[in-house]
Amino acid sequence: MIANTPEPPYYAVIFSSLRTEEIEGYAEMADLMVQLASKQEGFIGVESARNELGITVSYWKDLESIKKWKQQSDHLIAQNKGRTEWYKHYKTRIAKVERDYEFKK
Amino acid sequence: MIANTPEPPYYAVIFSSLRTEEIEGYAEMADLMVQLASKQEGFIGVESARNELGITVSYWKDLESIKKWKQQSDHLIAQNKGRTEWYKHYKTRIAKVERDYEFKK
Exposed, middle or buried, A16 (CB in 10 Å: 0-12/13-18/19+)? Predict the structure, then answer.
């Protein structure tokens, strides 16, 4: 569940969102996008949680991989549906992970 | 709910966690830590969501602010309780936000 990421540096895309009342097709599309993303070159892993606010963090090898995923054709369709139907507000932040540390029982 | 962050660059601390069955004191401490963090110099905002996995992203002006918050005395106590009682696994990633974009209906 916690993504297994390599030694930094690598990149994180933090996607924070508030949804509309419209739910038709959302869950299926979200699942499909995770499946598709995980096949992209440079994809490392993804973590997701939602209450009222949703946060999805995907991890990538480099900026080039993120750029290609942003422009992938099925993902462009999903982004468009997201804006017209599913999201009332979202913010995407692209960040370079410089350090990490972990605790495991 | 979505943090109001300035123009990049700024920093994100991505805290991903899986909890134990122990819940005593957790919610109060989590609330207190958000209150305390928001009083620290360099704090910008925080976003949080949890299902099985919890993700909290706090935003900071610079690395120095993050370092000071990590070493703040009440926060050290909370970190210790987190390791002994509340978390079975967590990972903290410190990342420099280089770009962001936003959509709002």
Answer: buried
Class of A10-97 in CATH: alpha beta
Which tokens belong to A63?
């900026």
Distance from CA of A52 to the nearest CA of B (A): 8
| A16 with B3: Cβ contact below 8 A | yes
DSSP state at residue A101: E
DSSP string, chain B: ------SSPEEEEEEEEEE-S--TTHHHHHHHHHHHHTTSTTEEEEEEEESSEEEEEEEES-HHHHHHHHH-HHHHHHHHHIIIIIEEEEEEEEEEEEEEEEEE-
What pTM, to 2 d.p., does this model score?
0.97
State pLDDT tens for residues A42-96: 999 999 999 999 999 999 999 999 999 999 999 999 999 999 999 999 999 999 9
What is the pLDDT averaged over residues B38-42? 97
Query: Pseudo-torsion of CA A50, B3, B59, A31, nearest 10°?
Result: 30
CA atoms of A53 and A16, how far apart (whole Å): 7
Q: Please answer yes or no on whether A97 and B94 come within 8 Å at the CB atom.
A: yes
Does residue B84 sit at the A interface (CB-CB below 8 Å)? no
DSSP 8-state secondary structure symbol assigned to residue A82: I
